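Let's do one together. I've listed all components of the complex below, 783 residues spread over two lines.
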Amino acid sequence: MTDSMEGVVKDESQSQPKEENVHEKTVSDIKFNFTLLERAVAQFDARYTLRALRSISSLRKRLSGEIIAESIISTYPPNNGTAQVLLRATGLDGDELTQIARRISSTSTGSTKQEKKEPLPEIDVYLAILAQVLLYDGKNYKIGAEFSKALVGRVRDLNRRTLDSLAAKAYFYYSLFYEALDPKPPSKQSPLISIRGTLLAALRSAVLRKDSDTQASVTTLLLRNYLSTADITQADLLVAQTQFPEAATNNQVARYLYYLGRIRAIQLSYTEAHDHLVSATRKSPNSAVATGFYQQSTKLLVVVELLMGDIPDRALFSQSRLERGLEPYFYLVQAVRVGDLQGFLKIVQQNSPTFHRDGTYTLILRLRQNVIKTGIRMLSLSYSRISLRDICIRLGLDSEESAEYIVAKAIRDGVIEASIDHEKGYMQTKQAGDIYATREPGEAFHDRILACLSLHDECVKAMRYPMNQHRLELKNAQEARERERELAKEIQDGDIDEDDAAGEFEGL
Amino acid sequence: MAENELQTALKQLHQALNAANPSTAPALLSRAKLALLKLNALIPGPRTPQAHLLLARETLELGALISIRLQDAEGFERYFQQLQPFYSLPQQILAREKSNSSKITGLYLLLLLSQGDYAGFHTLLETLELAAAQAGKGGLEEDQYIQYPIKLEQALMEGSYDRVWGATKRERVPSPEFGVFSQSIIGTIRAEIASCSEKAYASIPISDAKSLLFLDSEGSVVSFAKERGWVARDGRLYFPQQNAESANAANDILVTSGTVIENTLGYARELETIV
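Okay, and this is what the predicted structure of the assembly comes out as:
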């Protein structure tokens, strides 16, 4: 993000005249968003607010202290308290501000010089969020943290339903600032821990006020907070005690599912973790900005799939968004697939810094037993009878005794269908049964159908209907009734025979 | 005054621990804890002096070790939880070096393992991994107290029970406290091996079963076999599994047809709502 920003700044300095243009355009964009916010308040429709928020990502690249200051000065009456606070956050000094103010008053003609009315609190918060973005991109974490703290407190006191989606964003940056403060998260002294109280309080009031935006955003922030210091038990308790709002936006759901998948994977509930992570990767946004999330969740998904004894698809690794980032995982999967214990250990050792950074190291260490199991399965598929000594050599195990126990465990766990002859020291594979005689295909079929049905249900739920459409339908219904009456009359008169009439009825 | 009292109590506690005579310890411990309360140091606060922190940690650690000796799992867990705030203090306030933190954490891991609480085990491990990565040293790989339960868990999960058996021997445990768990772990693996053998072998000579199950004599093999319901005949053990399986299969069909009917009805209902 910062890299691309620097690039943009350079471009502007190269072409001076264009800069003014961009500047004006940005200010007018921001002001346009004010009208959106006003409309959102007047019509009580959160969609306008969301539209204003969505534009932040495009504004972000063009944002500067002057731009924000200009929009503030031209919107607020002079000497407004909120305006002063916001101006301070832009980091400009008094001289520059008066300069801007003079420029504005000189460009605006007499007609626009009417009394400026007190702006809505939504506009306050919107500008404050822009200031947060500016501070974050300028790496002013300390000031940003202080500023966000005050902002979050104010949002809470205001308690307006039209502020909800803005508040969610404000909390997001609030937590982001504290994450960037030293000492950084894994340390137990990180300031991140100190905001847990505030976030929990925010969660409580959000639930009470039925503010699903803030509720969703704060829940994910809390989970992230707990996981950053590896307080998995606390995160698990939070999940158990709270309900994630169904109306949350797609991105929040994806985040929530990812954290949930992570918690479950650590707790060894791989099936659950797998479900959550699959949904998280599918729900992850397609834009380039979200590639990091997509990669991270796919990495975890790959490891969890391996832990479940499945081998992820080869096609997964050839996606252009994943190819480079997932390279170590690709080799890992290969080692597990062929059951090569030595190769597996070598790959883990080589890539341990990467795995540590991704937070998958401990999960990967658990894979050792899966590698052995796959190895045994491969052997049992290729040989109908093999001595324990050979198994021991092939898999690189410590001793024949170990091999015997491991094979016995594999048989018990249902990994292979075989028996051991202890005296002669070999493993005898049983004839594989016909899979279609079991209920496995039926179960797979059932799973597919369930997935399709829930997809259908979600589609129906996600549909939106235009306003007042039902009136039209009422009218149609009335017409239909009239037609029906006519038809009935005609039947009575004997003009039409019954079959045709039935056909017409079906058409209704 | 409370400080002096605490120090004498600690001295006596050390003696009790070394003398392998922990019966007097609980009374001493409660006296020490009372003294700590008087010093207001049982829970570390921002203003607790370092000397008190050290004393408090020592007391709680002794308490933890003694409750292990007394085989008091609940007590140990309580001490472990009480110690957490001390271990998470920053290095400059309370140095980690002289504490028994890794020993006690290792013991706690072992306790979780012996209780079969794998989720708790891995959750704690994740936390430790992160803390170690942050400390920047060799990490967990060099800590013998923590490595011991990790190795044990690995061997248990992959099924190399002979390695588990070897690790529980007296000379292999990293400190005598760890030996307390050996018995329960051996019990666990014996049950595991038994259930594996039922599936893997049709029959097995009793003498082999003895070494397989890590039992001392053939007599104990026979009595163990009786417990599990195995048949001992002509010096061999037979596992009664085949009949059970066929009964299962018949049962299976009943269950399957039930679910198939249920599913199909479900599809019909859903189809109706869609169309």
